[in-house]
Amino acid sequence: MRQPKVKTFVITGGGTGGHIYPALAIARGLTERYPGCRIEYVGGYHGLETSIVPRAGLPLTKIHCRGLERRISWQAVRALGETAWGLSEALWLLRRRRPDLVIGTGGFVALPVVMAATMLGIPAVIHEQNAYPGITNRLLASRVALVMLTFAEAAKRLKARRTVLTGLPVRTEIMTAERQAGRRFFQLPEKGQVILTVGGSRGAQRLNEAMPVVAQALASLPDAYLVHVTGEPHLASVQAAYRQVGMDESRLRILPYLERMEQALAACDLCIGRAGAAFLAELTVRGLPSILIPYPFAAENHQEANARSLVDAGAARMIVDRELTGETLTPLVLELLREPATLTAMGQAALTLGKPTALTSIIDEIDQLLQKG
């Protein structure tokens, strides 16, 4: 009896964790759906994929790539040259591998790899994490068979053959962590109100400066507790700021970094943080109300577009970074904590946006495409 052909996939996406982690989730889903399949990750020489992908146990091939410039300059010429170099490397690689499918999740490296696939007639799909698509996916959308979306509004900014709203894959631990276990992890009482503040892996300076002012006002709410993930560079200064305002240390948990984010999300009643797509996917699958402060230097200001999608649905409030101070944040935090019904309604709205089956939806779409041949 003839054995079925082993599936081969090339996955590409890089630069930041926002492109890499969804790619790794898709790789995990493919491995579960197609046991024994071969997966090769193609990344750049300088992005975070150089360390993250090998740790995930996937073979990594590196090609040249550089972000495209919008203005005519020597940097723009160099970027075009490196992209062309990367395209030639990708063409050579894909001719040798002949994968069944190429999957791109954005970032500079995805452009030459997915472009090469479409030039060679190899089926290709892309996943767009943000409400405002990046330049790579905008350039590729019309060439690939399918664009999978996290935010529905991204479709109107893409000239795509076909789009489908799948959501963004979220780790199982995020969805299954229990509230009581989260409270025990931080040694917090079960009945108090917990605020989680997180500004990304390196922290958010303006948010770190604002929260001690908020903490001072929390004295009027004796059952309010604060978990603050500062980012490694900011730990000492944030600790000093909390001491200066006299925050009761029994109601405060300060960490430079948190690997067990699922425990913090399970424990909290209100989350304050940036508006990266992966973080918002986690908030929505858990149904958490939030105050979002979009990172102002994100490409195409995509974090503000992400945040507005939650605000428009009633799931979040937003303060733009330039307007964030302790004085602007404090009244909003107190208002929400004093109105449990509002927090509940925001959480329910967030839950309607969540896509807990995002990974299954993505793999189903890929499976249908492969079956069509």
Uncertain residue segments: none
Strand content: 15-25%
Shape: elongated
Q: What count of structural domains?
A: 2
Provide the CATH superfamily of the largest domain: Glycogen Phosphorylase B
How many strand elements? 13
What's the architecture of the largest domain in CATH terms?
Answer: 3-Layer(aba) Sandwich
Q: How far is the N terminus from the C terminus? A: 22 Å
Output the strand order for the largest sheet.
3-2-1-4-5-6-7
Mean pLDDT: 92
Main sheet overview: 7 strands, parallel
Which structural class do the helices and strands define?
alpha/beta
The CATH class of the largest domain is identified as Alpha Beta
User: What fold name goes in the CATH topology slot of the largest domain?
Assistant: Rossmann fold
Q: Helix proportion of residues, in percent?
A: 40-55%
Number of helices: 15
What does this structure look like?
This protein has helices at 17-33, 49-55, 74-97, 110-120, 135-140, 172-176, 179-185, 205-217, 235-245, 261-267, 277-286, 302-312, 326-337, 340-353, 358-372, and strands at 8-12, 38-43, 60-62, 101-104, 124-128, 146-149, 163-165, 193-198, 224-229, 252-255, 270-273, 290-292, 316-318. By secondary structure, the protein is an alpha/beta fold. Strand 9, helix 9 and strand 10 form a beta-alpha-beta unit. The two termini are 22 Å apart. 46% of the residues are buried. It is a peripheral membrane protein. This is UDP-N-acetylglucosamine--N-acetylmuramyl-(pentapeptide) pyrophosphoryl-undecaprenol N-acetylglucosamine transferase. Keywords: Cell cycle, Cell division, Cell membrane, Cell shape, Cell wall biogenesis/degradation, Glycosyltransferase, Membrane, Peptidoglycan synthesis, Transferase, Transmembrane, Transmembrane helix. Residues 9-146 form the Glycosyltransferase family 28 N-terminal domain.
